Amino acid sequence: MTLDDFWPRWWASCKMLRESTLIGYESAYRLHLRETFGHVPLDAITVERVESWAAAYADRPGACRKAWAVLRSMLRKAAKWGVIAYDPCSAGVGLPSPKPYEPKTIGIRDVKRMLRHFHGHRIEAYAIVSAVLGLRRGEACGIEWEDIDLRKGQVRIRRSVQYVHGRTITVQPKTRLSHRTLPLPRFVVERLRQIRRTVHGRGRLTGTLTPLQVARRFRSHMRLIGLGHIPPSNLRHSWATNALTAGVDLKVVSAMLGHSDIGTTAKYYLRPTWDVYRQAMKTIGASILNA
């Protein structure tokens, strides 16, 4: 059985995944795997063959790793179902290393400046919750006014809104721990109460705007107020970095971000600032002198 022959069977097993995930799988297979492996028998896909394919992606490590994830899933499933005796790539495959990514973040002072300049903007409520809660872009777009309890000062994260194939869809949050209730600072509660009166407290915080339209308006306004090219997703990175700088425990940061694994928080989101390094050295220096 070739990989092309196995594709429909494997694809049928993926139907419970998010639509956006399925679109990514399909495009990865069509664009990066079919031409090289589609005609190849499953048991003939070896580590050597895969690494030879991967070598051609030296300048596109991200695309390579996404496509490899699809191929690996197919091979594992084929072995699990007894289509092949074992996963031929189970020993591990060498892939091109991803380029270091350092998302541009903004500090506490710039967050305050951002919130001040978004005052009265159509997506002000969205900008507020994104900046002070470290939400995923889809989570922030999915918040409805009924999810916010201004009396208790908290917001429930219960859904995520995505823009897929030219339409807006509503899905469950990314992980089980992404279903969470987060407290709101007092100044946020007071401002949201004012905004809510103007929109009569119905529907999403973003109104009828799609996630794509929200992102465009956000980036445009950030450039307008002099904070540069900061996509909405970077507010999440900024929140994590600022929380660390403020001394919030890593476990708390991870839980508030809705991560299932604290390692994800440490690896991808926390970027210690110079002030944190300097304070650490003061602490170390003091301990040496007082020893």
Automatic annotation (TrEMBL):
<dbReference type="InterPro" id="IPR002104">
    <property type="entry name" value="Integrase_catalytic"/>
</dbReference>
<dbReference type="InterPro" id="IPR010998">
    <property type="entry name" value="Integrase_recombinase_N"/>
</dbReference>
<feature type="domain" description="Core-binding (CB)">
    <location>
        <begin position="1"/>
        <end position="83"/>
    </location>
</feature>
<dbReference type="Pfam" id="PF14659">
    <property type="entry name" value="Phage_int_SAM_3"/>
</dbReference>
<dbReference type="InterPro" id="IPR044068">
    <property type="entry name" value="CB"/>
</dbReference>
<dbReference type="GO" id="GO:0003677">
    <property type="term" value="F:DNA binding"/>
</dbReference>
<keyword id="KW-0233">DNA recombination</keyword>
<keyword id="KW-0229">DNA integration</keyword>
<protein>
    <submittedName>
        <fullName>Site-specific integrase</fullName>
    </submittedName>
</protein>
<dbReference type="InterPro" id="IPR050090">
    <property type="entry name" value="Tyrosine_recombinase_XerCD"/>
</dbReference>
<dbReference type="GO" id="GO:0015074">
    <property type="term" value="P:DNA integration"/>
</dbReference>
<dbReference type="InterPro" id="IPR013762">
    <property type="entry name" value="Integrase-like_cat_sf"/>
</dbReference>
<comment type="similarity">
    <text>Belongs to the 'phage' integrase family.</text>
</comment>
<dbReference type="Pfam" id="PF00589">
    <property type="entry name" value="Phage_integrase"/>
</dbReference>
<keyword id="KW-0238">DNA-binding</keyword>
<dbReference type="InterPro" id="IPR004107">
    <property type="entry name" value="Integrase_SAM-like_N"/>
</dbReference>
<dbReference type="GO" id="GO:0006310">
    <property type="term" value="P:DNA recombination"/>
</dbReference>
<feature type="domain" description="Tyr recombinase">
    <location>
        <begin position="101"/>
        <end position="282"/>
    </location>
</feature>
<dbReference type="InterPro" id="IPR011010">
    <property type="entry name" value="DNA_brk_join_enz"/>
</dbReference>
